[in-house]
Design a protein that fits this description.
Strand order of the largest sheet: 3-2-1-12-13-7
Shape: elongated
Number of helices: 18
Structural class: alpha/beta
C-alpha cells in the first residue's frame, strides 16, 4: 500500500524551534512505523519561502530575499537531517517545479470561476499572514502575535470564492468523521465553516511584495503566501505533469499545528475542490509546546532550543521526549528540568541500564548469541494501530512497559546471582533467564525502530554479536 505523509512547511522567518521538531519527529515516527509494517511511504517536508515577512527579515539583514531564503532553507534541511527525519522530499516553494504547479493550480481555479478581482480592505495580521475578523482579535491584536499591530489594508487584489464550498466541506466532515483528528479540532473547523465562509484574498500587488509567485496573466500581482504554499502538497508528488506519481500517492495524510487548522482543513480543501482534485485523506492537528505554563517566547526567556537539547542529551533522547512526553492532541508543558528528569529516570536508569546489565550477563555467561525466532521480532498489530491513529504516547508507553517488565523480571529472578551458584540446576535456570532477557531486548529493539532508530540498531547489534554496547545514555 502506498501512503503519502506531509508536515506543514515551516515559514523561514526564524530558526527551527521545538515545535518544528515535534511535528517532524511525529511525522517520521508514523512514516517509519508504516514502513516497518511493509507499506511504501512518501514523506514530504520542506520550507515556505514567500511573503511579506521574508522581505521584512531580508531587509533587516541587508540581504536579498533569495539569499535569505537559501540560508534559512539550508538551516531547516540540516535540522531535519540532524533529527534523523527519513523524508523522501524536501520541497522549497521557490523551486521552479513548484512555481509551475502553483500557477497551473491558479489557472484551474480560475477556469472553475472561483477567482475574481475586487477591492480589498481587511484587518490583517502580518504574523499569521492571514485576514482577521473582529471576533478573532483581543484588544485589537491577534492573540497569536500580540506584539504586532493589526494592519488595515485597502487595495485591488484577486479573491478565491471560498464561500462557494461551505456545504461541500460540511458534507465531507459529516461523511468522513475522522477527517480531522482529534475530534475537538473537527468540531472546531465544522463550527467555523457553519458560521459562513468569506472569500479570501489570494494575491498582492507586485509593487508592494516582490517576494512571490507571479499571477498567471497578470504581472502586476503575485500570489498570496497561503495560496502558493498549500500547493506544495501536490507539487511535491509531481502534479500536474507526473500523472502516475500523483495517482499513486494522492490523497495525503497531513500533520499540522492547531494554528494551521483553518488553512489545512478548510481553505486548502476548498482549493482542491475548485481545481477538480480529491480532498486530503486525513489531517492530524497537534497541540503547542509550552514551558512553565506559557507559550515559548524569547521575551519570557523560556525558549528551549531543540539543537541544544540534541547536543546535551542526544538526538535519540530528544525524539523520545517529544514522542512520549508531549501529548499528541493537547498542549504540553516541557522544561529543561522535566527533560532532565525523564531522561535520567527512563533512559539512563531505565532502558540504558537494562541493556547494559542484560548484555553484560550475556557476554560473560553465554557461549553464543541467542537464536531468535519470528515471535521474538514480531510486533503486535495494535502497536501499529496506535501509531496510525496518532496515539504516539500510548505506543511509546507500550515500549517502556516492556522495559519495566524486563527490569522486574531481572530483579525477581536475579540471574546475576544464580549464574554464580554452585548448583548446576540453578546455574542452568539462570542461563535460561539470561537468554529470555536477551530475547526481550531484541523485541524491545524491534518496537523502538520507528521512534529511536539508532538506539534500536545498537541494541539489535548487541544481541546479534552477544556484546555489551557502548553506554546508550550517559548520565548528565
Amino acid at each position: 500500500m502506498a501512503r503519502y505523509l506531509t508536515t506543514t512547511l515551516p515559514y523561514v522567518n526564524a530558526n527551527p524551534h521545538l515545535g518544528h521538531a515535534l511535528e517532524f519527529v511525529e511525522a517520521d515516527f508514523l512514516a517509519r512505523a508504516l514502513r516497518a509494517r511493509g507499506e511504501e511511504v512518501f514523506l514530504n517536508i520542506g520550507t515556505d519561502e514567500h511573503g511579506a515577512k521574508i522581505v521584512e527579515k531580508a531587509n533587516e539583514l541587508g540581504v536579498s530575499p533569495k539569499q535569505y531564503v537559501d540560508d534559512y532553507s539550508a538551516r531547516f534541511k540540516s535540522f531535519a537531517d540532524r533529527l534523523d527525519i527519513s523524508y523522501d522530499s524536501f520541497i522549497r516553494t521557490t523551486d521552479e517545479a513548484h512555481i509551475a504547479s502553483a500557477q497551473e493550480f491558479w489557472r484551474r481555479c480560475a477556469e472553475a470561476g472561483d477567482i475574481y478581482k475586487a477591492n480589498y480592505e481587511i484587518k490583517y495580521c502580518t504574523g499569521c499572514e492571514l485576514e482577521k475578523t473582529d471576533s478573532e482579535l483581543e484588544d485589537g491584536h491577534c492573540p497569536l502575535h500580540p506584539n504586532r499591530d493589526i494592519e488595515i489594508r485597502s487595495e485591488e487584489n484577486y479573491y478565491f470564492r471560498f464561500s462557494k464550498y461551505g456545504e461541500a466541506l460540511l458534507a465531507h466532515y459529516k461523511e468522513q468523521k475522522d477527517f480531522v483528528v482529534p475530534d475537538e479540532r473537527l468540531r472546531e473547523i465544522r463550527s467555523f465553516v457553519k458560521t459562513g465562509l468569506k472569500d479570501f484574498s489570494i494575491s498582492r500587488p507586485k509593487e508592494k511584495l516582490s517576494c512571490g509567485i507571479p499571477v498567471p496573466g497578470d504581472d502586476s500581482q503575485v500570489m498570496y503566501v497561503w495560496f502558493d504554499a498549500l500547493v506544495n502538497y501536490i507539487s511535491a508528488i509531481g502534479w500536474p505533469k507526473e500523472e502516475e506519481s500523483f495517482a499513486k500517492w494522492w490523497p495525503v495524510t497531513q500533520l499540522a499545528g492547531k494554528d494551521n487548522l483553518r488553512q489545512q482543513a478548510a481553505m486548502w480543501q476548498a482549493m482542491l475542490a475548485s481545481a477538480g482534485l480529491p480532498f486530503s485523506k486525513q489531517i492530524f492537528i497537534h497541540g503547542f509546546l509550552t514551558s512553565g505554563g506559557s507559550k515559548m517566547s524569547k521575551s519570557l526567556g523560556n525558549v528551549i532550543d531543540p539543537m541544544a537539547l540534541a547536543d546535551q542529551y542526544g538526538v535519540e533522547a530528544l525524539r523520545y521526549v517529544l514522542l512520549r512526553h508531549a501529548n499528541p492532541f493537547e498542549d504540553s508543558d516541557l522544561s529543561e528540568a522535566i527533560i532532565q528528569e525523564v531522561y535520567t529516570a527512563n533512559l539512563v536508569n531505565g532502558l540504558g541500564n537494562l541493556v547494559a546489565r542484560v548484555m553484560t550477563l550475556a557476554q560473560t555467561h553465554l557461549e553464543h548469541s541467542v537464536e531468535l525466532d519470528e515471535e521474538d521480532e514480531a510486533i503486535d498489530p495494535e502497536f501499529f494501530e496506535k501509531i496510525e491513529t496518532f496515539r504516539f504516547q500510548e505506543a511509546m508507553d507500550d515500549i517502556f512497559k516492556m522495559v519495566g517488565a524486563a527490569d522486574t523480571y531481572m530483579t525477581k529472578k536475579a540471574p546475576f546471582k544464580g549464574i554464580k551458584s554452585g548448583d548446576t540446576v540453578e546455574r542452568e535456570e539462570a542461563r535460561q533467564d539470561i537468554e529470555l532477557l536477551v530475547k526481550r531486548l531484541a523485541k524491545i529493539a524491534v518496537y523502538l525502530v520507528p521512534a529511536m532508530p539508532r538506539t534500536a540498531a545498537a541494541i539489535s547489534s548487541a544481541v546479534r554479536t552477544n556484546k555489551k554496547p557502548e553506554n546508550l545514555f550517559p548520565r548528565i
